[in-house]
Every structure is written in C-alpha cells, then in structure tokens.
Design goal:
Strand content: 15-25%
CATH architecture of one domain: 2-Layer Sandwich
CATH superfamily of one domain: GAF domain
Mean pLDDT: 77
Radius of gyration: 55 Å
Number of strands: 13
CATH class of one domain: Alpha Beta
Structural class: alpha+beta
CATH topology of one domain: Beta-Lactamase
Strand order of the largest sheet: 3-2-1-6-5-4
Order of helices and strands: HHEEHEHEHEEHHEHEEHEEHEEH
C-alpha cells in the first residue's frame, strides 16, 4: 500500500529515520551530507550532490558530492546563474533529465558530466522562508531513468526537511552570536563595575592617608617648637665658639707665616727640579738619538745582508739574462739578414722584431726585480700577498737551485692569504731561508725543497722544508743569534737567520725550526692575517 505521494511504507520509515537524524545535527554541512545520503538511499541513486545559493556571487557552489570523480568536481566548482539556466537546473523549481546522452547538450552536462558516468539526473530546490532559494538537491543514475511525480515529490520531502533543519541551524548560529555579543557586553559592564569599586576603595585609602598626614603635621609643629628652643641654646654656644674661632685665627696667622717660609723653600726646590728636568730631557734626547742610530745600523745591516744575497744571486741571474740576450741577437740577426737579402716579407721581419722585443721585456723584468730587491726597503706597511712574495723569491733563486740540481715544489694556499707588512723585507726572509737550504744540501744525495702556505684561525703560516743533514744537536737555539753560523770560515756571515728573525718580529710574527738530524730541517713562519685593525696598527 502506497501513500498519497506514491511512497511505500518502508520509504516513509526511511524518511522518519532521516528526520530523527536531522534533529541531532547542528551545522549546515552535516545536514546536507545526511540529506544527500538519505535521498540516494531512498531513490537507489548512484550519486548525489547538494549545492547552496550564494547571493554575493549570484550562483550555486557545491557543498556535498558523493560518488563523483575529482575531475568532475573541478569542472563544476562553481555554477553561475547563466550556467544554471542553460543547464535547466534552476534553484527555485524541480528538474529532471531522463537520459543525458539523448537530451540537449549544455554547459552543466558537458563532456565532464559524460566522463563522470551518469545518464539521468533528478534535481529539486532547497527553499527557505517566503520561498527564498537556498540551493538544490540532486541525485544521479548511471542508467537512464524516467522521472515519476511521486519519486520527485519524495525527493522534495527530503529537501524540505533539510531546508527546515538548515534554517534552524542558521537561527541557532544567530542566537549563539547574539548570546556571545550579550556575554561580551555583560563582561564589559562587570569590568566597569569592578573599576568603579576599585576607585571607591582607592578614595577611602586616600582619605585615611590624609588623616594620617594631618596627624604627622601636628607632630611636626610640636617638633618645630622644640627646634626653636634648641636654636636659642645653639646661638649661645655659637657666641662661645666665635671667641674660640678668634683665637684660632690668630693661631692661623702664625701658621700662614710658617707656610710662607715653606713656600719659599718649595720655590727653591722647584728651581732645582727644573734643572733636573732639563738634564732629563737632554738625556732622553740622547737616548732617542742612540736608538735612531741603532735603527739606522740595523737597517744598514739588513741592507748589507740583502746585497750579500744579491751578490750570491748574480751568477744565476747572469745565466738567466744570457738566454734572452742570445735570443735577442738571434731574432735581430734574422731580421737583418732578411733586409739585406731584400726579402719583401714585411710581416716576417715584424714577427722577428716582435720576438726580440718580447725577450727585451723579459730581461727588463728580471733586472727590475733585482733593482727592487736590492734597494733599501721603505718603512711603510701595506697589504701583501704572501703567495706572490713567495713566488718572487723562488723566481730569483730558481736558476741557482737548478744549477745545483735542487728540486723545489710549492704548495700555496688557494685562499691567497694576505698579511700586513713590507713586501721587500718579507721577500728577503724567504730568500735567506732558500739560500740556507741550498747551502745545507750541498752534500746531500736527495736535494728537495718544499715550500707551502696555509691560512687558519686568522694566522698565515709559511713552511719551508729541506732534505739536508739538519742542524747539529744542541745548536737549535743559537741559529738566530747574530754572526753565528754552522758553515766553514769565510762561507757565511752568520747574519741571514738573525736578519730573518728581526724582520719577522717587526711584522708581529714568529719563526720556529723543527730539526730532523740526518733528514733535514723545517722552518715555520706565522704572521697575523691582514685586517683593517692590523693595517692600522702597522701604520701607527
């Protein structure tokens, strides 16, 4: 037996259960999810959806979709009023499409709808007070299905129950908002009452403080009377003290007379002190003059060491200059022969002359380097590349080391560290160390020198290692003394390492030696890395 809507009793029971379920829901989305699920169950539908109407955007937006693929949901994320009207799915009346494949094509049931896999759709509106549009409820079938008025009416009952629950939920939310507003106003009122009570209590405390202040004022008036009595007694005592003061004044006059005599004696002592200060200034000037002479002698000693080193380098440099000079003669001879033979190859003659000029520049560079190293080093300090200075020293010594079959290897830091100092003096340090290593390996079978640089913790370290016999045991602490040498008489001055030690100390650095008897020695120099602070200190 069916009802007047053409519904079976089981469907009516489902509708009653659905209404009971709505009574326990308070938010709109939960109500719509329950509505779609119950409508799909009652209609045996494969898919279902619920959309709400947006007044601000004048169209429908989806809230609940059950059984649809994600591609379709992205396609119908929002339906404007035009799309709703073209798709024959208005928000204020029922609509049904028995078979989408045979029905008219529309933006709502386009390719994405066909891809979703449904053939038939029934849609009913969700209505609010005064028949206002709230949204739509729709069920979808994978196979064509003809819409029957009774089934559409049952679907409308599900939509009506949900519309009523939605309205109740909206009213509940409004009531909750009103309650929150009232609670906020009540809290503000209670806060103002508390502040008023606090002001009243503060006023009571102020009144009590005023009473206490008046009491203290009366006590102070009584104390003032006692003070006036004490003042009179003090005035009498003051008269007596005045008499004693007069007696003290006479005694002070005698003291002043004695002080005058003391000042006379002090003046005589001051004049004697002036003479002593004059003698002290003369002594200080003499000390400064002697110190300047000592510095001049030290500079002369350093220059003498450089010239001695330069003299030792002369043989190697002369051989090094001989190569470019021979090449110059060869290139110029070729050019003269070509001109005398009447060759018209102007390009070939220019090539020979250019080659000769290149050799001239090479010889000039060698001589310039010697002149720079040989002249007296200025006292100024600047930022110096330690790798470049080491390379210049090795360049000067290269020919001498090659002639003595000494192999030199360099392991220079890729960080290219800088120090603050004098490039000429530092180059002399490295040349002195290379010269000592050269002389030490004169009788060694394996002749190798390894020089390396590295940077760590703001310190630049230069190490020079040789494969000579090492330093005789017990003499490690004396090698930096002036005029001390382990070489034979006449083979050395004993100034090289002493000058090296002095230059490193002037650069705020340190030099150490690690002795390996029979295997060689390693000299390690540590200098502070160049910074604005070290440069400023060096200038001062």
């Amino acid at each position: 037996m069916r009802s007047e809507y053409g519904c079976a009793p089981s469907e009516l029971r489902l509708l009653g259960d659905y209404c009971d379920q709505l009574n326990g829901l308070s938010d709109v989305k939960s109500i719509l999810e329950a509505m779609v699920s119950a409508a799909m169950k009652s209609q045996s539908a494969d898919m279902g959806s619920a959309m709400l109407y947006s007044r601000s955007r004048d169209g429908l937006y989806p809230v609940v979709w059950i059984g649809f693929p994600e591609e379709y949901l992205r396609t119908v994320a929002y339906l404007s009023r035009n799309a709703v009207e073209l798709g024959r799915t208005p928000a204020t009346c029922c609509a049904a499409v028995d078979d989408i494949h045979t029905g008219p094509r529309s933006p709502l049931f386009g390719d994405a709808a066909h891809a979703a896999g449904y053939r038939s759709v029934w849609s009913v509106p969700l209505r609010g007070p005064e028949n206002a549009a709230l949204g739509t409820l729709a069920v979808y079938f994978r196979k064509p299905r003809k819409a029957v008025n009774g089934r559409i009416a049952l679907l409308e009952l599900y939509a009506a129950a949900a519309s009523f629950s939605i309205r109740i939920a909206q009213l509940s939310e409004q009531m909750q908002a009103d309650r929150d507003l009232f609670a906020g106003a009540n809290r503000d009122f209670e806060g103002k009452v508390r502040k008023a009570e606090e002001r009243r209590r503060a006023l009571i405390h102020i009144m009590g403080d005023m009473k206490e202040f008046n009491k203290r004022l009366g006590d102070q008036r009584k104390a003032m009377l006692h003070i006036l009595g004490d003042y009179e007694r003090d005035r009498s005592r003051l008269a007596r003290q005045t008499e004693r003061l007069h007696n003290s004044r006479r005694a002070l006059m005698h003291l002043l007379q004695d002080s005058h005599e003391s000042n006379l004696r002090l003046e005589r002592s001051r004049k004697a002190m002036i003479h002593i200060m004059g003698d002290l200034r003369e002594t200080t000037a003499e000390i400064q003059r002697r110190e300047q002479q000592l510095r001049d002698k030290q500079e002369q000693l350093v220059q003498t060491g450089k010239l001695a080193t330069l003299g030792e380098l002369t043989t190697g440099v002369a051989h090094e200059l001989n190569n470019p000079l021979n090449n110059i003669g060869l290139f110029l001879g070729n050019a003269i022969d070509m001109i005398e033979l009447g060759h018209s190859d102007r390009r070939g003659i220019l090539a020979e002359l250019h080659n000769a000029m290149q050799q001239v520049r090479k010889a000039t560079e060698i001589i310039s380097h010697l002149r720079t190293f040989g002249r007296a080093a200025p006292v100024s300090r600047e930022t110096v590349s330690i790798n470049h200075t080491v390379e210049r020293a090795v360049c000067l010594m290269h020919e001498q080391l090659r002639l003595r079959q000494i192999n030199i290897t360099s392991d220079l830091s890729l960080q290219n560290p800088n120090v603050t100092g004098n490039a000429i003096q530092l180059e002399q340090v490295f040349i002195n160390l290379l010269t000592n290593a050269r002389d030490a390996m004169a009788e060694s079978e394996r002749k190798e020198i390894r020089i390396s640089t590295r940077l760590y913790d703001g310190t630049v370290e230069v190490s020079l290692c040789d494969t000579g016999p090492g330093i005789p045991t017990g003499l490690e602490q004396r090698i930096f003394d002036p005029f001390f040498t382990t070489k034979e008489v006449g083979a050395g001055t004993g100034l090289g390492l002493s000058i090296t030690y002095g230059i490193i100390k002037d650069h705020h650095g340190s030099i150490q030696v690690i002795n390996r008897p029979g295997q060689g020695a390693t000299f390690t120099i540590q200098l502070p890395q160049a910074t604005d602070e070290t440069l400023e200190r060096a200038v001062i």
